[in-house]
User: Fold this.
Amino acid sequence: MSRDVKSDSKDLAAIVAADVRRCAGDVDDEVVADILRLQPSLVDLETAVAHLRGQGDLPDRTGHPLVGKAAQLYEILVSVENLQEESR
Assistant:
């Protein structure tokens, strides 16, 4: 007997380089590869980018720290931001 399981396909779908660049902007191939290596969901990536840009509710950003893949993605993206600022 089969069971229909409904889920948010956005959570389960594998992301590709185009998704990374659409969400994170113009990042180099090495950063894209680092992100894809984690095999994050699109939700993980969007969450990390939102936190990086200071978006979202303040309680979410201060009271609920990022965890898991979203936290790993945030660390990758914040290091890119820091390198870009240093080179200016």
Remarks:
- The longest helix spans residues 68-86.
